């Protein structure tokens, strides 16, 4: 068989999936329709949790992919929800990345493609996959004259996924009702920081610095809302022009900021769709192939890259033949953990849609009320920051589990380095807080035991009493114990270890 896994789609999610699978020693190949890597800047808002997961990938010379991107992006402390004027402040979040990184999507794709190139992972450009079939033992694809088989296939082929259609997976959702504008331009009057404009007569527009020279402009005119699906289709076929954009900005913001030299002019709608399941047999879906929504709050790319992170280690365990049932079709499988996240993603963007596109006095009042909630810096602001940043996204544990189970572990100090840099997609970390290496006997090829220091300050106080914690390859807590009880069984259950030395069993 040519490969263990074929990834269809060389966008950011496909490339990330391939990179993590390769890091877990899975033979993987990527097939991408475009002749060369994309030059599009679409997903330019990178949230903290995404930078955390990109830290797993070693870019060489002591750098991780997150380091590579940070050198190319612009850090912004604030994130927005529904382009409200009251913003969410990330600076107190418990992460090494307490900011949004503005970095054009093509740079993220280039960093991942470069990672794959240096590891000699085949990424076939100009290779459109036109057929996907599966049997009980394998998947088969056709791309031009090439036919390939593999044990599994990941469809990361975007919103119009042919993989999803070939697998017969439904993609239900809401019909679009508006058409917004989105463009990357240069400004004669640059803005130093993001500015959001909203008025119920003209529409809304956001002007967001992207790089030293480029500014992202997006928004919608009132006349382009409340449309039928047919009107949306028609409107989207008319290309956005610089003149049209300039006129819209003047109406909404009172100026077009001396806009010129567009590098990208496009339109977006607010259709939301979600795949009925993320796995059918040997075919799995990730990223936009599994969920699409209004591009609000910069979520799509981020959630997609985290899909890849959740999927890759489980699929690698399955390929290598040791995955316990819970990872393949049980309570911790990819579908069970990631579908609820995308359901919330769709709900969150629909809520933003309501806040952004209700151009009436009541819409204005709703926005003002939400601004007030956020400005109080209380629970609502914390909840929104936790969700948008990705840091509070967790996977529920079984009843009675320690409260940390399923949460994302903080970047704890280890005896050498920190947790995020120690994570690998092919092994668990067993954090030993006893200080006397009490749990060293539980180490194996799938579990690295490391001495860890309890976090202080911003982390969940529940960490204060923990004696040991088993951390999954994606950085979430699989098991935590304050007494040591149950640890041996938890390690065995998660890693499907069949034999433990007597000394370890007695711990
Ligand atoms: C205007 C706009 C602004 C956005 N802003 C943000 C943002 O700020 N932050 C954010 O997180 N997200 C944002 N997004 C969303 C983000 O761009 C997407 O969520 C992201 O690109 C999804 O990545 P993906 O790899 O799943 O899909 P894609 O990027 O669509 O990649 C899919 C790839 O599959 C290839 N392909 C398709 N069919 C085939 C086939 N049959 N055979 C082989 N290859 C195939 C395509 O050529 C493509 O390269 C924005 C989107 C838009 C439209």
UniProtKB/TrEMBL annotation:
The keyword Flavoprotein applies. Residues 3-347 form the FAD-binding domain. Keywords: FAD, Flavoprotein, Monooxygenase, Oxidoreductase. Coiled coil: none annotated. Gene3D superfamilies: 3.30.70.2450, 3.40.30.120, FAD/NAD(P)-binding domain. Its cofactor is FAD. It comes from the Bacteria. The keyword Flavoprotein applies. GO terms for molecular function: monooxygenase activity. InterPro entries: FAD-bd, FAD/NAD-bd_sf, RIFMO-like. This is FAD-dependent monooxygenase. The lineage of its organism: Bacteria, Bacillati, Actinomycetota, Actinomycetes, Kitasatosporales.
């Amino acid at each position: 068989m040519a490969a263990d896994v074929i990834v269809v789609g060389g966008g950011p999610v496909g490339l990330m999936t391939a990179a993590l699978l390769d890091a877990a020693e899975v033979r993987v190949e990527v097939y991408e329709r475009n002749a060369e890597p994309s030059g599009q800047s679409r997903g330019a808002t990178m949230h903290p949790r995404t930078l955390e997961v990109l830290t797993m990938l070693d870019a060489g010379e002591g750098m991780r992919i997150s380091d590579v991107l940070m050198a190319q992006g612009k850090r912004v402390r604030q994130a927005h929800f529904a382009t409200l004027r009251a913003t969410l402040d990330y600076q107190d979040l418990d992460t090494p990345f307490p900011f949004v990184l503005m970095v054009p999507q093509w740079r993220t794709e280039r960093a991942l493609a470069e990672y794959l190139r240096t590891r000699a992972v085949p990424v076939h450009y100009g290779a459109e996959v036109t057929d996907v079939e599966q049997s009980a033992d394998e998947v088969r694809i056709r791309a031009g004259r090439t036919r390939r088989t593999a044990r599994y296939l990941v469809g990361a082929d975007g919103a119009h996924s042919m993989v999803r259609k070939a697998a017969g997976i439904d993609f239900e959702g809401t019909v679009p009702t508006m058409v917004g504008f989105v463009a990357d331009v240069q400004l004669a009057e640059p803005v130093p920081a993001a500015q959001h404009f909203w008025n119920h007569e003209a529409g809304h527009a956001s002007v967001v610095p992207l790089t030293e020279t480029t500014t992202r402009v997006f928004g919608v005119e009132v006349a382009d809302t409340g449309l039928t699906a047919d009107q949306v289709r028609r409107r989207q076929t008319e290309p956005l022009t610089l003149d049209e954009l300039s006129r819209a900005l003047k109406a909404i913001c009172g100026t077009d900021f001396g806009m010129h030299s567009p590098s990208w002019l496009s339109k977006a709608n607010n259709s939301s769709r979600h795949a009925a399941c993320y796995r059918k047999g040997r075919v799995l879906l990730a990223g936009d192939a599994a969920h699409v929504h209004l591009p609000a709050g910069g979520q799509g790319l981020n959630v997609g890259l985290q899909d890849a992170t959740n999927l890759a280690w489980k699929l690698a365990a399955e390929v290598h033949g040791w995955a316990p049932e819970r990872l393949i079709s049980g309570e911790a499988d990819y579908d069970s953990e990631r579908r609820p996240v995308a359901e919330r993603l769709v709900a969150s963007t629909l809520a933003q849609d309501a806040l952004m596109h209700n151009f009436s006095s009541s819409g204005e009042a709703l926005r003002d009320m939400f601004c007030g909630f956020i400005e109080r810096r209380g629970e609502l602001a914390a909840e929104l920051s936790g969700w948008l940043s990705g840091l509070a996204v967790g996977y529920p544990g079984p009843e009675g589990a320690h409260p940390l189970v399923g949460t994302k572990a903080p970047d704890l100090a280890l005896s050498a380095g920190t947790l995020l840099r120690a994570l690998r997609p092919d092994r668990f970390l067993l954090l030993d807080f006893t200080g006397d290496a009490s749990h060293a006997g539980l180490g194996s090829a799938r579990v690295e035991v490391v001495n860890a220091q309890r976090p202080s300050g911003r982390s969940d106080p529940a960490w204060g009493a923990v004696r040991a914690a088993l951390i999954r390859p994606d950085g979430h807590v699989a098991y935590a114990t304050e007494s040591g009880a149950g640890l041996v069984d938890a390690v065995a259950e998660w890693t499907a270890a069949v034999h433990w030395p007597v000394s370890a069993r007695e711990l």
